[in-house]
Amino acid sequence: MNAKRFALASLLSAAVLVLLADPVAAQSTSADLINELNNKLLYIALPITLLVEVILIYAVLKFKDNDEPKPTKENRRLEITWTVATAFILLFVGVASYGVMADPSVTFTGGEDEIAPNDGDVHIEAQAYQWGWTMSYPEHDITVEGSGDGPTIMLPEGQDIYIGVGSRDVIHAFHVPDLGLKMDALPNDVQYIQTSDLEEGSYQGYCAEYCGLAHSNMYFTVEVVDQDTYDQWIADQTEADSADNAASNETANASA
Ligand code: CUA
Q: What whole-number distance in Å separates Cα of residue 50 and Cα of residue 70?
């Protein structure tokens, strides 16, 4: 009776803990999917952990003074039960994980040809090198080079975002944990990640693959803003670029 009460109390406190640990709203579709899966697996893992621990503690307390232990008897029904139960749990874990990992926001298998800039899709190329990032917007001829804390890329909330990740030298990795984005940066190859429904804010990104001496300096920032601010930023950058070009043309003309 005491053991039953103990088990019930443990289960209830676990349920309260899970409710308290519920994470805040997600910052992107990718992060949303990943966090949801984590929670599902937690809900499965917690009762199993508790059950095992309760049985363990019960057995230790109940049999600690048993000097003449008897071997356990075969119990076919019990064995079938735990085999079938385990199979169901593993099946659930497999199906739930596959559903998330096969989602384009987590594993994008498409390429550049699926990006439709005219429909508002945002296309960014992230080129890693030892040791930094060159971020560019190919459709707008904008390149953001970094200094200090690395480059800052601007993204509009609400649009589909495509980021092509590549490397100029060794293997790096593009990682923005809070947005649920991660992709290896391979030399001579561009792999795309896709996400959408970003939440406004500033997000830290960094290189997540050891790549040499200054690996830990490979930071960048992702700034998510509303559509108007983004459009204005793109316009400002384009203007700044053409002003630069005009200036260098003048210099060229003057020296000619
Ligand atoms: Cu680049 Cu680590």
A: 26
Expressed in angstroms and rounded, the spacing between residue 168 Cα and the centre of ligand 1 is 12
Mean per-residue pLDDT for 112-137? 90
**How many angstroms does the Cα of residue 163 sit away from the middle of ligand 1?**
17
Q: Residues with beta carbon inside 6 Å of ligand 1?
A: 128, 172, 207, 209-211, 215, 218
CA distance 49 to 1: 21
Q: What is the pLDDT of residue 198?
A: 92
**Matching residue, tokens 């601007």:** 154
**Rounded to two decimals, what is the model's pTM?**
0.77
Which atom of ligand 1 lies at the shortest distance from residue 171's CA?
A: 1
Q: How far apart are CA 2 and CA 58, in angstroms?
A: 10
User: How far, in Å, is the centroid of ligand 1 from the Cα of 133?
Assistant: 10
Report whether 14 contacts 44 (CB < 8 A): no
Q: Kindly report the average pLDDT of the chain as a whole number.
A: 86
Residue 130 vs residue 14, higher pLDDT? 130
Q: Contacts from 3-7 at CB under 8 Å and sequence distance 24+?
A: 3/54, 3/58, 6/54, 7/50, 7/51, 7/54
**Is 233 within 8 Å of 225 (Cβ atoms)?**
yes
Sequence-separated (6 or more) residues with CB below 8 Å from residue 87: none
Looking at the domain 114-255, which fold is it? Immunoglobulin-like (2.60.40)
> What's the 127 CA to ligand 1 centre distance in angstroms?
11
